[in-house]
Amino acid sequence: IVRADITSLEADAIVNAANSALQRGGGVCGAIFAAAGIEQLQEACDAIGHCAVGSAVLTPGFNLPAKYIIHAVGPLWQGGAHRERELLFFSYTSALNIAVAQGLSSVAFPLLSSGAFCYPKEEALQVAVEAIGSFLLEHEMQVTLAVYDKASYALSEGLYKDIAAYIDDNYLEKHTRYKRQDPQIPKQMREMALAEEEYDMVCMAAPVQ
């Protein structure tokens, strides 16, 4: 989890917080269109035409450092009783499944639905952690969550560690055959996960005012 402008990240793909019509919007969406090239990206999106909430589609990255843009449509926050959490989870997993199908090794997300779609930031971060953590139980990929404002990054620092804990706990639960065959393997996995976390952690946030 980094505090950065997603359009500057050098991942195989970056994820756009898209709308169902795949039209240029504001916030992250507008910034991605501007950096990729508005006319050419809009033409590519128009050729696809539509993307349902909870789904994702792929276009070239055009002028971005990333080769591809995955356009994921999150839900509009309506108080939480309209399947918002489920649909937001699907938005992340749909984008990640496209990355796998495309053979990508790295992908960067913004905090989906937390801008113009008004999803509360803390809850949005929790869904992102759960969705990415579930995906990483089964796949090897570098997944970056780029948050831009200080408040969101401050919230994310604690959740970063939760991802490693989530993967560790659930991996051991799902792969109990390892524990039966060799009691040392789970311990080794935990030590490797912690070592990788320490190596990869980048603290970029200034103190929240």
Question: How are the SSEs placed, and which strands pair?
Answer:
Layout: E1 2-3, E2 13-18, H1 27-36, H2 38-48, E3 56-60, E4 68-73, H3 84-101, E5 106-109, H4 121-136, E6 142-147, H5 150-174, H6 176-181, H7 184-200
How many helix segments?
7
| Mean pLDDT score | 81
**Rg, nearest Å:** 17 Å
- Quickly give the structural class: alpha/beta
The major pleated sheet works out as: 6 strands, mixed
Beta-strand segment tally: 6
Identify the strand order in the major beta sheet. Answer: 1-6-5-2-4-3
**Elements, N to C (H/E):** EEHHEEHEHEHHH
Helix proportion:
40-55%
The 3D shape can be described as globular
- Amino-to-carboxy terminus distance: 20 Å
SS strand fraction: 5-15%
Q: Pick out the low-confidence regions.
A: 175-209
